[in-house]
UniProtKB/TrEMBL annotation:
Highest rank taxon of the organism: Eukaryota
PANTHER family per UniProt: PROTEIN PRD1, PUTATIVE RECOMBINATION INITIATION DEFECT 1-RELATED
Signal sequence interval, chain numbering: none
Ranges in coiled-coil conformation: none
InterPro entries reported in the protein's UniProt record: ARM-like, ARM-type_fold, PRD1
Protein name, entry field: Protein PRD1
Length: 1245
């Protein structure tokens, strides 16, 4: 390059032509020939080359210079620049060269760029440069050229495309991130510029290199940590996915690969051998999916979307992606994106595609539901957001296919979002495409039918609001969509069913029911009337409307009754009349000439039957019954000849039963006895199947009131019992779909106005009499046990109709039955005794007889489950005897020698274990047996006192002259109970404490009423006292309280009263009282639970204050400061009966000062006012326990029930300081304190 003076401007110093010597802006010139020689020579100093290139770059910015170059020498520098690129390894020079190439290509016409592309691609394709720095520089320049071209014609100027791609694919093997990035970018730009091969045969240029290039790309994506390389790789894979090339190796014909210079599969890295492409692909995209670069993340989501959208992607590949946790990654992206686009849109689109792998995807969906609901909240706020429908579909699938996966808080949030969507749509604030509206309704229906919605959460108000907005939105749009209307009606139907579910008398559900009826009256009916008016104005239009209504009705029946139930209506829609009265008239016709009449009549019968299930009528019940009877009479021959299918007969019988039942409920209607006789014949001929069709409760009750068909009803009940699934995890409560279930039968059995209970008892008796029906007996017994579980009141009617006699007959029969049958009988007996009113049992002596038959005769110290079950039932019988029921049965049990022997054997064996008894809890055979025997003893003591008053000398339970002599009745002596109380496990301690408390109560009553002296020694009583005192601080308040009550009674016995020094010297009693006073005087400790824990000590203090001679140390414990501290720490709301009695006894014993009495007086005034204002009702008795067993019980359930029964009814009249709770007793004690205070004042005066 030469700079010439003004007088020597024709040529350069080398003598080159002046036309090739171009003038610069600064007065110099550049010789293109000299420049070309300099930059083309690889031996030229790099400093000179760099300076020359910079001067050329500056000159190209001068318009005159650039115009001269492009006008006269546009292609002159192409070859030198390309040669320079392939010669120099220096990066800065390569950058200058690339900049010049791009500048010339952008300024000149397209031919210059085409030549550059042709020459550079030819150099790269030749492979002569290997993978040196010049090759990389050439590749970078080629990529830049391909990226800046405005048209797509560059592809045609690459001479050997296959060789170029082959070289580029080879470069992907190299570990250099820079080389891989450049190769990937060039391959991506080539795929964008041209989609088909140069031969024009329609094939793709990448096919000869597949699947090897796919494995290489996935490997690069998996291993690279460079985001630029990732973006280039993802972009290329996306283009391949769009052209459906991203598929497994088996989809390609690899025989022609080598002919194109492709990469052999053996050259793929070892890490990918033997692994399918989809597995590698799934692993490769995990990193980019969680990339911190949002561009990489979005590009990866786009790649995944196009891969899944490809027609070549199979269900297996989608399933693999889900198994590889790709769905979990998408849910995480959604969460981290804070639910903003574009991540929300793309993630939900991909999740929708992944959901086609149903079973595999469901497990991921359960975890992802917590992410989908916030995503729905976002997309719901954007009008016509493209993924609203997809989001709703995913949520619907989770609710429908994965019951229980949605929590209560998620349920509430989801409902709020759905209601907001419907409200905005109905108000016209936000539009919604039909598909989205339909999915909103579908999700709401799924929610209504889900277990989460049918639990404790009451969604009545939300459901009413949603259905209102849905109906308004559906009917207000100008172009009504039939699918929208159908889905909206289905939502309305499910909402109405929800209003009848469970506790249908709930006020909120009653409001929901009323609201739905208002919707029908104010919106749906006017819409239908409008349609009818249009039909009357235009007959042709009316026929079309009529057909549409019938088709709509048939679709509804498909949904409601399933199994294409609406098909008969669709087939006859053209022949059915418009007027409902004409439908009734059609039903009463008989013609042998019309072939369409039977089909039309069946369609009419189907309409009447289905509408009756939802308490809808085509006309007045009298007209419907008359038409139905006419239909029955005209078709009697067909019915009796059995030419009508059983389903039709069943629906006919069910409809007839409903009409007759409604007539009996409201008024007496005239009916045809002949038609009734035909109906009964159909039933007795086994053409009616109770289980095959839905039935209204009114119809079912009427059928169960008909004595003529009791045998058939027994047969239907047996069929139900056989089909009942004992393995089901839950019991259906309610009967909104009018199917026969245990709840329905239990409700029938529990009422007196039908033969339900009698049928079950008779069926069981019949099966007992016949041999070979043990399986049927078990089925019936299990259903009866489940009935009494869901509806305990059903036991009343079963007992009234002689279930006890039936079971007793079985006990005494010669037939042998299995343990399963025996256990099922015991469950039914147990449930009956738990639920039946005592008056129903009072005259029935079958219970004792069957129990005596069940008692084991062998003397064993560990009883099996059946024997323990029998002991539990015997305890229930003894308990019932205290209410004047089963008294004779109880007496027989109390003196039964086998039971007495078992009790003595168990007691002896357990007592002999001593301290080791603590290891035998309810989980061991010994512990479980002892618990049941102790429970039996408790109820035996109560029963002896109730049924044989005055018969038992209760002092015999104390130390006697001959302790080895057994009792003549069921009972456990006091010292044995004390051993169990001292050494037993926690549960044994609880039961033993109630037993000894009951026994002490009876002894005290006998001593006080008969003025008897104790027959036992002081030493015996002191040993009992030691055990009782040791348990006053026991952690179970029941045990501690019972022991305190026993100690209080023991202190009141005359023999101990005379031994005053025993209590004066009792350091243990003093410790109890001192601990109590300190605790009660400690600030911030007085709470209801804390005061309850102090009850045992309070009872001891009261008993000590009632002694004839109060121990001297009591005055030092209850000194002035401690009493004042207790009063300062107590509030009026803290007063309990025991605290009031304590203060009253302290008052009577002159422990209180005048100031303390005044303080108590004021606090009692406040306490009385609080009690009165709270309107407490204390006089009502405790509700009886209604817990019963189902077929899948365990012994723990029985034990828990009997213990609850014992603790809930353990009211012991132990004096004025006894077991009293409630505001009524509190008020009584307040008055007693005031009375005592008045008496003391009078004495003082």
């Amino acid at each position: 390059m030469q700079w010439c003076s003004s007088d020597d401007g024709l040529s350069c110093s080398e003598g080159h032509r002046s036309s090739l010597n171009l003038q610069t802006h600064e007065g110099g010139s550049i010789c293109l020939v000299c420049l070309s020689k300099l930059i083309s020579n690889p031996l030229s100093p790099t400093v000179h080359v760099s300076y020359a290139l910079s001067q050329l770059s500056r000159s190209l910015s001068i318009p005159h210079f650039l115009q001269s170059l492009l006008t006269f020498h546009p292609h002159f520098l192409v070859s030198p620049l390309v040669a320079a690129l392939s010669s120099f390894h220096d990066q800065p020079i390569a950058a200058q060269l690339t900049h010049l190439v791009l500048a010339l290509s952008a300024s000149a016409d397209s031919s210059v760029c085409h030549e550059f592309v042709a020459r550079i691609s030819d150099r790269v394709s030749s492979g002569v440069l290997g993978w040196t720095s010049p090759q990389l520089h050439m590749l970078h320049c080629l990529g830049a050229l391909l990226n800046c071209e405005k048209d797509n014609d560059l592809y045609s100027h690459i001479k050997d495309m296959c060789s170029l791609i082959s070289v580029l694919v080879t470069g992907l093997h190299l570990p250099s991130e820079e080389i891989r990035g450049e190769v990937l970018f060039v391959l991506y730009k080539l795929s964008v510029l041209q989609n088909t091969s140069a031969e024009g045969d329609g094939s793709d240029m990448f096919i000869p290199f597949c699947p090897q290039i796919l494995y290489l790309l996935v490997d690069v994506l998996m291993k690279t940590q460079n985001d630029d390389v990732r973006l280039n790789c993802i972009a290329l894979l996306t283009m391949l996915a769009r052209r459906h090339l991203l598929r497994e190796e088996c989809a390609y014909d690899t025989s022609n690969t080598s002919s194109y210079g492709g990469v052999n599969s053996k050259e793929i890295e070892d890490g990918t051998k033997g692994t399918s492409l989809v597995n590698l692909f799934a692993e490769a995209i995990k990193g980019p999916l969680l990339s911190s670069d949002s561009k990489v993340q979005v590009a990866t989501l786009d790649l995944l979307f196009h891969y899944l959208s490809s027609v070549k992607t199979s269900g297996y590949q989608i399933g693999v992606l889900v198994e590889e946790n790709i769905a979990d990654y998408l849910f995480e992206i959604l969460r981290l994106s804070e639910y903003k686009d574009p991540a929300v849109k793309m993630c939900l689109q991909v999740l929708d595609l992944l959901s086609t792998a149903e079973e595999t995807f469901k497990r991921r969906l359960v975890v992802g539901i917590s992410t989908l609901i916030p995503a729905l909240r976002y997309v719901a706020e954007v009008p016509f957001h493209p993924v609203q429908c997809e989001t709703l579909k995913l949520i619907h699938e989770c609710i429908s296919e994965c019951p229980g996966s949605i929590s209560t808080s998620q349920l509430e949030e989801l409902i709020l979002v759905l209601i907001r969507m419907l409200r905005k749509h109905s108000d016209g604030e936000m539009g919604m495409i039909p598909e989205t509206f339909i999915m909103v309704c579908c999700v709401f229906v799924a929610l209504i039918r889900s277990s989460s919605c049918n639990g404790a959460l009451d969604l009545s108000k939300s459901i009413e609001e949603a259905t209102t907005h849905a109906i308004l939105a559906c009917l207000s749009v100008s172009e009504r969509n039939i699918n929208q209307i159908l889905q909206c009606l289905y939502l309305l139907k499910e909402a109405y069913a929800y209003s009848h579910d469970g506790n249908s008398v709930n006020s909120s559900k009653l409001e929901l029911r009323s609201g739905i009826l208002d919707i029908c009256r104010s919106h749906l009916l006017p819409w239908l009337v409008f349609g009818v008016n249009e039909m009357e104005e235009d007959i042709a239009l009316g026929d079309r409307m009529k057909n549409r209504i019938y088709l709509l009705l048939s679709s509804l029946l498909d949904s409601l009754l399933e199994d294409d139930s609406g098909q008969p209506i669709r087939e006859t829609a053209l022949h059915l009349p418009r007027d409902p009265i004409d439908l009734l008239f059609l039903l009463g016709q008989r013609s042998t000439n019309s072939l369409d009449l039977p089909s039309c009549q069946y369609a009419v019968l189907l309409i009447m039957y289905s509408s009756s299930l939802y308490d809808e009528r085509l006309a007045d019940e009298k007209l419907i019954l008359a038409s139905l009877e006419q239909y029955i009479l005209l078709n009697r021959v067909d019915f009796l000849n059995r030419t009508t299918d059983n389903l039709t007969v069943t629906r006919l019988v069910n409809l007839y039963g409903l009409l007759r039942g409604l007539g009996n409920m409201s008024y007496q209607i005239h009916y045809s006895r002949e038609a009734e006789k035909i109906i009964f014949e159909l039933i007795n001929n086994d053409e009616w199947d109770l289980l095959s069709a839905r039935i209204h409760k009114v119809s079912l009750k009427w059928l169960f009131q008909q004595e003529t068909i009791v045998n058939s009803l027994c047969h239907q009940i047996l069929k139900f019992c056989r089909s009942y699934n004992l393995e089901e995890a839950h019991i259906i409560i309610g009967n909104n779909d009018q199917t026969i279930n245990v709840q329905t039968l239990a409700e029938l059995v529990s009422t007196e106005d039908n033969y339900g209970a009698r049928l079950f008892v008779c069926l069981l008796a019949q099966l007992y009499e016949e041999e070979g029906h043990e399986h049927d007996i078990i089925c019936v017994l299990n259903v009866m046990a489940t009935m009494t579980h869901v509806c305990p009141v059903a036991c009343e009617q079963l007992s009234f109709h002689g279930i006890a006699k039936t079971i007793r007959t079985w006990f005494y029969s010669s037939n042998t039955f299995s343990t399963t049958t025996y256990t099922s009988v015991l469950i039914l007996v147990f449930n009956t005794l738990c639920s039946v009113h005592p008056q129903t049992l009072s005259a029935d002596q079958s219970w004792a007889a069957m129990m005596e038959r069940s008692i084991p005769s062998k003397k064993v110290d560990i009883l099996n489950e059946e024997s323990l079950f029998v002991i539990g039932i015997i305890s229930l019988i003894l308990h019932l005897s205290t209410t004047k029921a089963l008294e004779e049965a109880s007496k027989a049990i109390l003196f039964n020698t086998s039971i007495i022997s078992i009790v003595n054997t168990v007691v002896c064996a357990s007592s002999s274990k001593g301290p080791a008894l603590v290891d035998h809890d309810e989980g061991t055979g010994t512990g479980e047996t002892l618990i049941f025997v102790l429970l039996l003893d408790y109820f035996a003591v109560k029963s002896l006192h109730a049924t044989l008053p005055g018969f038992v000398d209760w002092q015999n339970f104390l130390d006697s002259t001959n302790p080895a002599e057994p009792l003549a009745f069921i009972g456990i002596r006091c010292h044995d109970l004390c051993r169990f109380l001292h050494f037993g496990s926690p549960v044994i301690k609880i039961v033993a404490s109630y037993c000894i408390l009951e026994l002490f109560s009876k002894i005290s009553n006998q001593i006080n009423s008969n003025h008897e002296e104790l027959k036992c020694t002081i030493g015996y009583l002191m040993s009992i006292r030691s055990i009782l005192e040791g348990l006053v601080f026991y952690n179970d308040v029941r045990v501690a309280t019972n022991c305190s009550l026993c100690l209080s009674m023991l202190m009141g016995w005359e023999k101990l009263r005379n031994e005053t020094n025993l209590f004066d010297e009792s350091s243990w009693c003093r410790l109890i009282i001192e601990e109590m006073t300190v605790s009660l005087a400690t600030p911030a400790l007085t709470s209801q639970s804390f005061l309850s824990s102090q009850r045992p000590a309070l009872l001891i203090a009261i008993a000590l204050l009632k002694l004839r001679k109060i121990p001297q140390w009591m005055r030092s414990v209850f000194d002035n400061s401690s009493i004042s501290g207790i009063l300062e720490n107590l509030a009026a709301s803290d007063f309990s009966t025991e605290i009031l009695i304590l203060f009253r006894e302290l008052l009577k014993s002159d422990f209180l000062s005048t100031e303390q009495i005044a303080t108590i007086n004021q606090m009692l005034q406040e306490c009385r006012k609080r009690v009165y204002s709270s309107n407490a009702q204390e006089g009502r008795p405790n509700e009886p326990i209604k817990k019963v067993l189902n077929a899948s019980y365990d012994m723990g359930d029985i034990c828990e029930y009997i213990i609850d029964l014992m603790t809930s009814e353990a009211y012991i009249d132990t004096g004025s300081w006894g077991f009293h709770t409630g505001s009524k007793k509190l008020l009584e004690e307040i008055e007693l304190f005031f009375s005592t205070l008045t008496v003391d004042d009078d004495i003082c005066r």
